[in-house]
Write a structure and sequence with these properties.
The chain is of the alpha+beta class. Helices cover 14% and strands 27% of the residues. It is built from four helices and 16 strands. The strands form five sheets. The protein has a five-stranded antiparallel beta sheet, with no helix packed on it. It has a four-stranded antiparallel beta sheet with strand order 8-9-14-12, with no helix packed on it. A three-stranded antiparallel beta sheet has the order 7-6-15, with no helix packed on it. Strand 6 (70-73) and strand 7 form a beta hairpin.
């Protein structure tokens, strides 16, 4: 799988490039303790930091990054991004635009009178034939003051225009800076063909394996990471 990113030549030196998601892990994950005391168990228990599926989900795919600082003052957004005019017609120049409140009517995202923000794209994205691009809120990033609306784009065909990322601003009283390089969307390629769904009952052999596996996972710290977790290669950049 190759994923090809292209940008306007006038903006190339000003844009942060999309990065592997492993390079955008939040400070709070690094700062978390490995264990914490549980009054229910009466002992130390492992935290989310020690849960490989949680961490693997957060490091999967790549991140689209905010191209410049955005100042937010209780729902008012502003920025000072001094970049050249794009060489490509109809290409965005501002980091944000919006969807009108009416476009959210009837959805769980609808908030009376509140528009959705839209993170403008400065990269076109091309994936291999038969694959689509799944774009979602950065995984487990409840600390971010927005929630991306998840989308699926056939980026093996839609390769000549940017993909914009709509989001709901969730902290109306927030005042501060959304910094350049903030991850705004986590993306990964998925096959477009639907899997065949097969349903079976556990036979005696699989019942025994189930019982043994669960017992081992509960009794032996790190058994999933050591015995079942697949190694993940690092992506190459060209």
């Amino acid at each position: 799988m190759r994923i090809i990113f292209r940008c306007d030549p006038a903006l190339a030196e000003y844009l942060p490039r999309p990065i592997p998601a492993r390079g955008a892990l939040p400070d709070w994950l690094r700062a978390m303790p490995n264990t914490a005391y549980s009054a229910i168990h009466g002992r130390e228990v492992r935290t989310l930091k020690q849960c490989p599926p949680v961490v693997d989900a957060m490091t999967y795919g790549f991140m689209i990054l905010l191209p410049c600082d955005v100042v937010v003052d209780k729902g008012v957004f502003s920025w000072n991004w001094d970049v050249p005019a794009p060489a490509t017609e109809r290409h965005p120049r501002s980091p944000l635009s919006f969807h009108t409140p009416g476009q959210l009517t009837g959805s769980p995202f609808e908030i009376a009178g509140q528009a959705a923000i839209k993170f403008n794209s400065f990269w076109t994205i091309e994936v291999d034939d038969g694959w689509s691009l799944f774009a979602t809120h950065p995984v487990n990033r409840a600390d971010l003051p927005f929630r991306l609306v998840t989308g699926l784009v056939d980026s093996d065909r839609f390769t000549d225009g940017g993909i914009n990322f709509p989001a709901i601003w969730t902290q109306p009283e927030f005042s501060g800076v959304l910094a350049r390089g903030t991850p705004v969307a986590q993306c990964f390629a998925v096959p477009r063909s639907m899997p065949e769904l097969i349903f079976e009952e556990l036979d005696e052999q699989r019942q025994s394996a189930y019982t043994q596996t669960v017992a081992t996972v509960l009794s032996t710290p790190g058994v999933y990471r050591k015995r079942f977790r697949a190694k993940r290669g690092r992506a190459a950049n060209q």
